[in-house]
Design a protein that fits this description.
single chain; about 290 residues; alpha/beta; Rossmann fold; 2 domains; two-stranded antiparallel ribbon; 10 helices
Amino acid sequence: MTMKTILVPIEESEGLDAILDTALLTANIFGSYIEGLYYQPTAASAMVVAGEGLVVTTPELVESVEQQDRDRREQVHKHFEDFMKSKGVPIGPPTLPQDSPRANWIEEESPNSEIVGSRSRVFDLTVVARPKKGANIAAMSILEAALFEGGKPILIAPPTSPKKLDEHLAIAWNSSTETARSIAFSMPFINRAKKVTIITIEDFGVPGPTAAELARQMERNGIEIETDTKHVDRSKESPGKVFLDEAKEIGADLLIKGAYTQSRIRQMIFGGATDYILWNSEIPVLMAN
């Protein structure tokens, strides 16, 4: 089990280098093919709203929007290829056997980010940006498309490029199906890690196997495990913050977490561990739903 194919949906953002660094760090571990995906609307959708709810699209406005999109596409394409060339990564379609990093660029027509979810189904991993409050909403829509429509894990790149991914891994265990699935997807990383720590929070999670039971199962697979149970006042501390603080304290390179054990709507209204981690993590997070 490995991570030989990596999808990187490309958007124009200040965090693009951190996304590419995270993808390449993974590719260097597994000898992976990286595909940069840029999607664009099937037709210009610029409109001018003119009184009484009437919508008018002018040829000049359409041409202006199309030119802006061409300029943006050329800019991020050049950035992608310049980055890969600067790291010594060959550019071109994948080859077999795939035993060293290689990258390629593709463009797809799509009215929205649904193409990301569709395309990610045939990749081992999709690397996306951590969303930032007040920034372009594209990052969150790309993340959601990959997470909910792809059926595969996503690796969320932090704002600052990570230095390593496979030395000390932390698992945010809450006994859920989503976290069990995330662990299964993470086995290529777990099998290479020097240390794996299971973090649990007292009286947090859903009914299910304990951290000790998870540790025993993983030890039977030859994986050395440590368990770390936090005793916290949940009325004062968000579980998401506890997981992140503990991962930072133990020096974890990567946090493995199931996404949205509670419903997304409930988490948006009342807060939740997944939502907190999505918006605040400073280390890479591997998630699946």
